[in-house]
Design a protein that fits this description.
The structure holds two protein chains of two kinds.
Chain A (H helix, E strand, L loop, with lengths): L4 E3 L2 E4 L5 E6 L6 E8 L3 E9 L2 E5 L6 E5 L5 E5 L8 E8 L8 E2 L3 E5 L1
Parallel strand pairs in A: 2-11
Antiparallel strand pairs in A: 1-3, 3-8, 4-5, 4-9, 5-6, 7-8, 9-10, 9-11
Chain B lengths: L2 E3 L4 E5 L4 E3 L2 E3 L6 E7 L6 E7 L7 E2 L2 E6 L4 E6 L8 E8 L5 E3 L3 E6 L1
Parallel strand pairs in B: 2-12
Antiparallel strand pairs in B: 1-4, 3-9, 5-6, 5-10, 7-8, 8-9, 10-11, 10-12
Classes of the chains: A mainly beta, B mainly beta.
Chain lengths: ~110, ~110
């Protein structure tokens, strides 16, 4: 089976712009979670989707949003980018989410100038 | 709220030697999973090993094993016969039924030739 894929792998934006990141889970997986990884804050949970519904959300401002499509692919959107949004954004998929094992994609590295 | 603590920011070990990475966690839940992930310089998060809290037997995966002490809320990772390819950041993670992982701050492991 193909692993979790994320596009794009690298992205450079300027403050105030918006960005959309994409994640394709492992075939058959219905849960997709998003994480932000920064040197200062470590790995922080953004949100988790299952069958097109957001089941849980981390402590991020409303500028961070996501959605999941019927084919389980997920997108994450960040509006009005700030310098502090520069990070590695990781997507992980699981068969049904919750306590089970999550499999991570390679990440999208976002740099905000 | 659940927390995960990794008290060793950096460690090093000689090739072929054994090293133990520490992780403690705090939760009031009784049913949960614990994981160790490694993140090599490529930034791809890779599952190393997982432990179900209801299982008393410690999980093992080839050269990797855990010491799970539920009462003490401790979950350490032992790497035997360390190899250069084990050089990576290691994250301990906790997952319960709330559909999100809680990660520790990571331990940077360097295997020395």
């Amino acid at each position: 089976k193909a692993g979790v894929t994320q596009t794009p792998r690298y992205l450079i934006k300027t403050r105030g712009q918006q960005v959309t990141l994409s994640c394709s889970p492992i075939s058959g997986h219905r849960s997709v979670s998003w994480y932000q990884q920064t040197p200062g804050q470590g790995l922080q949970f953004l949100f988790e989707y299952f069958s097109e519904t957001q089941r849980n959300k981390g402590n991020f401002p409303g500028r961070f949003s996501g959605r999941q499509f019927s084919n389980s692919r997920s997108e994450m959107n960040v509006s009005t980018l700030e310098l502090g949004d520069s990070a590695l954004y990781l997507c992980a998929s699981g068969a049904s989410g919750g306590q089970e094992t999550q499999y991570f994609g390679p990440g999208t590295r976002l740099l905000v100038l | 709220a659940q927390t995960v603590t990794q008290s060793q920011p950096e460690m090093s070990v000689q090739e072929a030697e054994t090293v133990t990475l520490s992780c403690t966690y705090d939760t009031s839940e009784n049913n949960y999973y614990l994981f160790w992930y490694k993140q090599p310089p490529s930034r791809q998060m890779i599952l190393v090993i997982r432990q179900e809290a209801y299982k008393q037997q410690n999980a093992t995966e080839n050269r990797f094993s855990v010491n799970f002490q539920k009462a003490a809320k401790s979950f350490s990772l032992k790497i035997s016969d360390s190899q250069l390819g084990d050089t990576a950041m290691y994250f301990c993670a906790f997952a319960s039924g709330t559909y999100k992982y809680i990660f520790g701050t990571g331990t940077r492991l360097k295997v020395l030739a």
